[in-house]
């Protein structure tokens, strides 16, 4: 591999690491609680939820 290609690969790696370093991190327990809350709030809109109110098909 040439030094130009190697330098380019290292530059891409550095850019990726800088991007990842800037991402806000939260605890898994907090993420799980937020996900559970989101799911509970949107369960009535979930087409795969077997417990939601049945509707008639709009195509019929």
Automatic annotation (TrEMBL):
Residues 3-60 form the G protein gamma domain. The keyword Cytoplasm does not apply. SUPFAM superfamilies: Transducin (heterotrimeric G protein), gamma chain (SSF48670). One of its GO terms (biological process) is G protein-coupled receptor signaling pathway. It is found in: Cell membrane. The keyword Cell membrane applies. GO terms for molecular function: G-protein beta-subunit binding. Keywords: Cell membrane, Lipoprotein, Membrane, Transducer. It comes from the Eukaryota. Gene3D superfamilies: Transducin (heterotrimeric G protein), gamma chain. It is a lipid-anchor. One of its GO terms (cellular component) is heterotrimeric G-protein complex. InterPro entries: G-protein_gamma, G-protein_gamma-like_dom, GGL_sf. PANTHER family: GUANINE NUCLEOTIDE-BINDING PROTEIN GAMMA SUBUNIT. Belongs to the G protein gamma family. G proteins are composed of 3 units; alpha, beta and gamma. Guanine nucleotide-binding proteins (G proteins) are involved as a modulator or transducer in various transmembrane signaling systems. The beta and gamma chains are required for the GTPase activity, for replacement of GDP by GTP, and for G protein-effector interaction. This is Guanine nucleotide-binding protein subunit gamma.
């Amino acid at each position: 591999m040439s030094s130009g290609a190697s330098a380019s690969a290292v530059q891409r790696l550095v850019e990726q690491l800088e991007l990842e370093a800037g991402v806000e991190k939260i605890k898994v327990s907090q993420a799980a609680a937020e996900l559970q809350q989101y799911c509970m709030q949107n369960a009535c809109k979930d087409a795969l939820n077997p417990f939601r109110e049945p509707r008639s098909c709009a195509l019929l």
